[in-house]
Amino acid sequence: MDSQSRSVTLIGVPLEEGSGRRGAAMGPAALRIAGVDQTLVDLGHDVADFGDLRVVPAMDLPNHPKAHHLRIIGAYTRALEAATYDAAKSGRFPLILGGDHSLSMGSVSGMARYAAEMRRPLFVLWLDAHSDFNSPATSPSGNIHGMPVAYFCGEAEFAEILPKDRPLVAPKNVFQVGIRSVDPHEREEIRKHGVNVFDMRAIDEQGVAATIRDVIKTVGEAGGLLHVSLDVDFLDPDIAPGVGTTVPGGATFREAHLVMEMLSDSGLVSSLDLVELNPFLDDRGKSARILVELTASLFGRRIFDRPTRAA
Q1: Quick check: is 64 catalytic?
Q2: What are the tens digits of pLDDT across the range 253-278?
Q3: One of 261, 276, 282, 293 is an active-site residue; which one?
Q4: Is 283 among the catalytic positions?
Q5: What pLDDT is recorded for position 23?
Q6: CA distances from 231 to 59, 101, 145, 192 (A)
Q7: 307 versus 54: which is more confidently predicted?
Q8: For 195-235, what is each residue's pLDDT tens digit?
Q9: Which of 49, 87, 121, 226 could form a disulfide with 10, with the two C-beta atoms 3.0–4.6 Å apart?
Q10: pTM over 0.90
Q11: Considering 45, 68, 69, 145, which one is annotated as catalytic?
Q12: Given the residues 37, 52, 128, 255, the one annotated as active site
């Protein structure tokens, strides 16, 4: 995308069952209260809010002892895959308001279907403290929010949530930035499948600008579409405390805005997840407001446009 006017579809996903902790279901409401829709309108974009997805458990799916709440997460995955695909197919930018990170099983799968129809490769920029490349066989907790990357890469088929012949994302097309918490078996899977991981040490050593520049170059040269999945815990918890999986040492406020500004300049981003916001753990809406500000940077706001906010 670029700073020109875009047609944006907001899709709320009040999903919390993937995390093993309640509260993320309030994330879409918190982002709306923080003004995500009006912020984009003020930047000149056409915004349509489709409200929150509402589903009932998918009873054709099994109860899985190592993939908790599979039926409700499977139902959301199916609904969000279709909603994301439909928005992209109609020429709109899908902006998914979450909800825990298991929702990316649906959003990325929907964009993968759209990219396949366009005959373009899909790339995923995973801004997160965690790699989320577990499967039921490797997950220590059984919480599905730690499995979405493995799922949309075809390496975590716990049940036929979506068709087995669906378009997948090649692991080499996944760029994970800000990583600082990886399970031992997960680390082996990431290496085996060739996921591109830039942990916080890499960012400290080479800078976030060089990292994102490499991602943009790779996607641009391939003529690809880029899905961005932004987890609150990409940021340092001192900046954004409203998440149930805090890991110290995350990205700074300026690093995160630089990422979004560079992505905006690239014109390559085709869809966005905002995930793992838990308002119950937040400090007076601080994390929700930061996510909205980062979204504004992705949609064209620059530092000299940023209003002063009262303390």
Answers
A1: no
A2: 999 999 999 999 999 999 999 999 99
A3: 276
A4: no
A5: 97
A6: 29, 7, 11, 24
A7: 54
A8: 999 999 999 999 999 999 999 999 999 999 999 999 999 99
A9: 49
A10: yes
A11: 145
A12: 128
128 has catalytic annotation:
yes
CB 121 within 8 A of CB 35: no
Q: What is the CATH number of the domain that holds 137?
A: 3.40.800.10
Q: What is the helix (H) or strand (E) element at residue 109, kind and residue range?
A: helix 104-118
Residue 136 is part of which domain span?
7-305
* Structure confidence by residue, pLDDT tens digits, 180-191: 999 999 999 999
In a domain, 2, yes or no: no
In a domain, 175, yes or no: yes
231 noted as active-site residue: yes
**At 154, which amino acid appears?**
G
Catalytic residue chosen out of the listed positions 52, 233, 261, 273: 233
Is 46 one of the catalytic residues?
Answer: no
Is residue 116 in a domain?
A: yes
- Residue of 232, 293, 237, 286 whose CA lies nearest to 260: 293
Split at pLDDT 50, 70, 90, the class of 20 is confident
Q: Catalytic one among 45, 68, 69, 130?
A: 130
- pLDDT for 309 equals 63
Q: Let me know if 132 is a catalytic residue.
A: yes
Residue 18's nearest CA partner among 181, 112, 130, 116 is 130
The domain tally of the chain equals 1
- Tell me if residue 265 is catalytic: no
Q: Residue 4 — pLDDT band, cuts 50, 70, 90?
A: confident
Bridge partners of 95, per DSSP, are 10, 272
Residue 29, in any domain of the structure: yes
